[in-house]
Amino acid sequence: MTNYAGKRIVVGITGASGSIYGVRLTEVLLSMGFEVHLVVSNAGWRVLKEELEWNVTDREGILNDKFGDRPGPLVYHPVTDIGATIASGSYLADGMIIMPCSMGTLSAVAHGSSDNLLARAADVMLKEGRPLVLVPRETPLHAIHLENMLKLARLGVKIIPAMPAFYFKPRSLEDIVLFLVGKVLDSLRIEHHLFTRWGDNHGDSDQPHHTGRQN
Q1: d(CA 20, CA 175)
Q2: Which reaction is recorded as catalysed by this protein (predicted)?
Q3: Is the dihedral of CA 147, 151, 153, 154 positive or negative?
Q4: In what order do the strands lie in the sheet with 132-136?
Q5: Positions at the binding site
Q6: Rounded to whole angstroms, how far apart are CA atoms 199 and 201?
Q7: What CA–CA distance (Å, rounded) separates 101 from 17?
Q8: Total domain count for the chain?
Q9: CATH number of the domain where residue 143 is located
Q10: Is residue 3 included in any domain, yes or no?
Q11: What was the pLDDT predicted at 2?
Q12: Which helix (H) or strand (E) holds 134?
């Protein structure tokens, strides 16, 4: 597999349900050698606590515990640090993924609001013409949600809703999570083997190869 050492990806985790998506994405990118710049919103930390039972009192400590054994470096930025490196267009990053992306964060990106580091980093991706991927996790969607997504899609943002597929015969929730992570990596042309693609050993009973780990 391609060595991605030296490549930088910004990952955002917001307060939408599905924090496991962002965790697995971060694990996989670090395993590939990417330098991951992680931003977690305040609501995102709450969801990590509620859904994954993380002890978020010591935020940097829990991140080191969860991700510290991966080959790629992890750089954590508090969401309030508007002067962080990733807030500047002169700091080169190869792309940004917000997974999961709340409707509030999606709206902030769609309207150019930069009142926190997550929205500012996304705004940098847009103004510099760099890849930006949003993974919304909300249902049902009303007209404002859809209009914001359409606006961003017209600007070149990849919108990948957290919608699982079943043609690859998932056997666990982990398989479904890694499928979504794989679809995000596909959108950035990042090589992976997280799920069995349509036409590749179709009907084979073997499990997909998993790069992520279970907590």
Answers
A1: 12
A2: dimethylallyl phosphate + FMNH2 = prenylated FMNH2 + phosphate
A3: positive
A4: 74-78, 35-40, 8-13, 96-101, 132-136, 158-159
A5: 15-17, 41, 102-105, 137, 167, 183
A6: 6
A7: 9
A8: 1
A9: 3.40.50.1950
A10: no
A11: 80
A12: strand 132-136
* Binding-site residue set for FMN: 15-17, 41, 102-105, 137
Residue 39 lies in a domain: yes
Q: Please tell me the predicted confidence (pLDDT) of residue 201.
A: 65
Q: Which residue has the tokens 């899609």?
A: 153
Residue-level pLDDT, tens digit, the chain, 215 residues = 688 988 999 999 999 999 999 999 999 999 999 999 999 999 999 999 999 999 999 999 999 999 999 999 999 999 999 999 999 999 999 999 999 999 999 999 999 999 999 999 999 999 999 999 999 999 999 999 999 999 999 999 999 999 999 999 999 999 999 999 999 999 999 999 999 898 886 544 445 445 445 44
Residues 6+ apart with CB under 8 A from 148: 103, 106, 107, 110, 111
Please give the Cα distance from 179 to 200 (Å, whole number): 15
- Distance in angstroms (rounded) separating the CA atoms of residues 13 and 48: 9
Annotated binding-site ranges for dimethylallyl phosphate: 167, 183
In a domain, 95, yes or no: yes
Q: Which amino acid does the sequence have at 137?
A: R
Domain that holds residue 63: 8-187
Query: Would you state the structure tokens that stand for residue 111, as one six-digit string?
Result: 């309207």
Under 8 Å between Cβ of 13 and 100: yes
Instruction: Answer yes or no: pTM beyond 0.90.
Output: yes
Has residue 71 been placed in a domain? yes
